[in-house]
């Protein structure tokens, strides 16, 4: 059985498995989480974290697409993928955004290296906004080039 809960301080150890998350960055993210600017949700199975989603509800924090919620990160550990956990996180974020009065939601995906995620998002109603591929970040030697997908709520 899985459940979704708010992130808490000890989750930084889990977050380190995916990307380097410094203690300072984690504190900042959790402070913003407490203020409601960023909502960081953890999905657990058997009381162990298996994935997360970071949801921005403050459109001032996301000036690129004002008035829309943003899913900054959606991630599930590899051995738990294709079992519905990502779908649960995504639908939970959508529900929260709609409850906050937002009319849409957007996220970015690497169309070349993350085709499974793109298929998931499109299956759930997300569509490419027509924008060009852009550099979202550099992680070690890897450049992440993404497109934006949007969905009305």
Write structural notes for this entry.
This protein is α+β, with helices and mostly antiparallel strands and 153 residues long. The protein has 4 helices and 8 strands. Strands 1, 2, 3, 4, 5, 6, 7 and 8 form an 8-stranded mixed β-sheet that branches. It is globular and about 40 Å long.
Please state the CA-atom Rg, rounded to the nearest Å: 15 Å
Number of helices: 4
Q: Average pLDDT, to the nearest integer? A: 85
The percent range for helix content is: 25-40%
Total DSSP E strands: 8
- First-residue to last-residue Cα separation: 28 Å
Q: Overall 3D geometry? A: globular
Percentage of β-strand residues:
35-45%
Q: Provide the structure class.
A: alpha+beta
Low-confidence stretches: none
Q: How does the major sheet shape up?
A: 8 strands, mixed
Provide the succession of SSEs. Answer: EHHEEEHEHEEE
Keywords:
single chain; 153 residues; alpha+beta; eight-stranded mixed β-sheet; 4 helices; 36% strand; globular
In short:
The protein has four helices and eight strands; from the N terminus they run E-H-H-E-E-E-H-E-H-E-E-E. The protein has 153 residues and is of the alpha+beta class.
């Amino acid at each position: 059985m899985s459940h979704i809960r708010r992130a808490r301080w000890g989750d930084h150890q889990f977050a380190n498995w995916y990307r380097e998350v410094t203690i300072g960055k984690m504190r900042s993210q959790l402070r913003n989480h407490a203020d409601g600017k960023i909502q960081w949700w953890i999905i657990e199975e058997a009381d162990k974290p298996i994935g997360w989603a970071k949801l921005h509800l403050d459109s001032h924090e996301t000036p690129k697409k004002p008035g829309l919620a943003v899913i900054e990160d959606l991630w599930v550990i590899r051995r738990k993928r294709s079992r519905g956990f990502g779908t649960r996180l995504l639908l939970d974020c959508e529900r929260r955004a709609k409850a906050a009065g937002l009319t849409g939601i957007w996220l970015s995906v690497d169309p070349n290296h993350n085709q499974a995620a793109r298929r998931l998002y499109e299956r759930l109603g997300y569509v490419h906004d027509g924008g060009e591929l852009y550099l979202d970040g550099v992680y070690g030697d890897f450049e992440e080039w993404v497109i934006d997908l949007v969905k009305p709520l």
